[in-house]
Design a protein that fits this description.
The complex is a heterodimer of chains A (288) and B (169). Chain A contains eleven helices and 14 strands. With 288 residues, chain A is α+β, with helices and mostly antiparallel strands. Chain A is globular, with a radius of gyration of 19 Å. The termini of chain A are far apart. Chain B is of the alpha+beta class. In chain B, strands 2-1-5-3-4 form a five-stranded mixed beta sheet, with helices on one face. Classes of the chains: A alpha+beta (288), B alpha+beta (169).
């Protein structure tokens, strides 16, 4: 029985730069866990998930930024905390789904430690920022031994805790496209108490013009082995005037796209019942 | 091999110590430095009994509250920290601590060091916090005795005292 008080021993590595961190990743590969805020890596340790080495980014300068420009969009550095993102007026105004997923994440203390990039890299199916960023169409920038690589978040989540990050790559930045006229977004989740992980969560990002939905991205978490997009629901919505009938059809389409399980936080049955409602409410909230 | 020499400034006192890489800040504070006011509650960032303040590198944002159980001590090298013991000046209680005494915001007392640290942080950042904002700010601190009513009353009392003191100045 692992002790929750004492972490299993590991080698702590504290690179001073991104380059040094990547060199260490190349050496240790999957034997090392990358740690930004520590809110996941340390908790995993107390639950007995041993790791040979931890690569802490604490001493890597220049990664704790949230930058926004109207033409360039949003850039979130690997060490930007959830609180930094929640505190950004630009995020709140232009990316409401991301704002909410960061602002209600965990507790005030863990928001001061945990990072948005870490929330995505952990690839837990219930990750709140991961869900919001999937709907918002984020891009992830990795630094590897041979330079930088940028991928769409659509390609990132592969399976339960399996991602497209190569073992010798470090996620250095997450980017969101510049805000465009008519683009709206929203995020919602169901929890028992506010500091719980989500039983289920949903995020949408729509382009709406004259009441007609031009494009749609709908994401859900904790209803499948990974954070997923509801492509069938998106197709139903695209090109349509948003009406009660369309929303009914979208609600009805959710069930066939999800595969929820029973776990400590909820049951498959409950998740199946509530998912269509949550998706619908989130669309309604986005279009306001 | 896995030893890290670090310097921490805690409650204005400097400590130069060597810590193991896998030891948390909480462990080091309690077991190496005897700062036992920082409590071990859950060990996973849910209860807030180990809340401490850390001075932000970016001075504008002031100090921020973190869970000492989730920080590896070695990664905190060079940081300035404040625990419940260091909230007041010259060993006195600060306005929040005094209000917890006056309003009976303390029953068993185990959550209190974390509560007063987090409450001080929230009133520093938002001196005019509403009850809702106080409750939101204390979401990461669990109390199993009071039912929170007395705790919120204590924070409100502290808020009044702090506003009065500010006006006097």
């Amino acid at each position: 029985m692992p002790s929750s008080r004492i972490l299993p021993e590991f080698e702590l590595l504290m690179p001073q730069s991104v380059e040094e961190a990547v060199k260490l990743l190349k050496k240790y590969k999957a034997k090392a866990s990358v740690m930004a805020g520590g809110t996941d890596v340390v908790v995993s340790g107390t639950q007995g998930f041993a790791t040979e080495a931890v690569i802490s980014l604490a001493k890597v300068p220049g990664l704790d930024y949230v930058k926004f420009s109207k033409s360039g969009g949003l850039k979130i550095g690997a060490l930007a905390t959830l609180q930094m993102v929640a505190d950004s007026a630009d995020v709140k105004k232009n990316y409401p789904a991301l704002y909410k997923s960061a602002a209600i994440n965990g507790t005030p203390q863990t928001r001061n430690m945990g990072t948005v990039v870490g929330n995505v890299m952990r690839a837990s199916p219930s990750g709140d920022c991961a869900c919001a960023l999937l709907a918002l169409g984020a891009k992830i920038v990795f630094q590897g031994p041979n330079g930088k690589r940028e991928i769409s978040i659509d390609e990132f989540f592969i399976d339960y805790k399996k991602t497209a990050r190569k073992a010798d790559e470090l996620a250095v930045e997450i980017k969101l496209p510049a805000p465009k006229t008519g683009v709206v977004s929203a995020f919602n989740r169901i929890t028992r108490t506010t500091l719980d992980l989500s039983k289920i969560n949903a995020a949408v990002c729509l382009t709406v013009s004259g009441g007609v939905c031009k494009s749609a991205r709908i994401a859900m978490g904790a209803v499948a082995p990974k954070t997923i997009r509801l492509i069938d629901s998106e197709d139903l919505l695209k090109g349509q005037k948003i009406s009660d009938a369309i929303l009914d059809a979208i609600s009805a389409s959710v069930g066939s796209q999800i595969s929820p399980i029973d776990d400590v936080r909820s049951t498959a049955e409950y998740r199946r019942e509530v998912s269509p409602v949550l998706v619908r409410r989130t669309i309604e909230e986005a279009i306001g | 091999m896995n030893k890290h020499p670090i310097t921490l400034t805690i409650n204005n006192q400097e400590y130069s110590i060597t810590v193991a890489g896998h030891h948390t800040l909480l462990q080091v504070m309690r077991d190496q430095l005897d700062l036992t006011e920082v409590k071990y509650g859950c060990g996973r960032g849910e209860c807030g009994a180990c809340t401490v303040l850390v001075d932000d590198d970016n001075e504008k944002s002031g100090r921020k509250a973190i869970d000492a159980c989730l920080a590896l001590a070695a990664t905190m090298d060079g940081k300035k920290l404040t625990t419940a013991r260091g909230l007041g000046e010259n060993g006195d209680l600060n306005a929040v601590q005094q209000a917890f005494v006056d309003e009976s915001g303390i029953q068993c007392g185990f959550c209190t060091p974390g509560m007063v640290v987090k409450s001080t942080d929230l009133l520093e950042k938002n001196p005019k916090a509403t009850e809702e904002e106080i409750r939101f700010g204390l979401e990461g601190n669990i109390c199993r005795c009071t039912g929170y009513v007395k705790i919120v009353d204590s924070v409100k009392k502290a808020q009044k005292v702090m506003t009065k003191n500010k006006k006097k100045k």
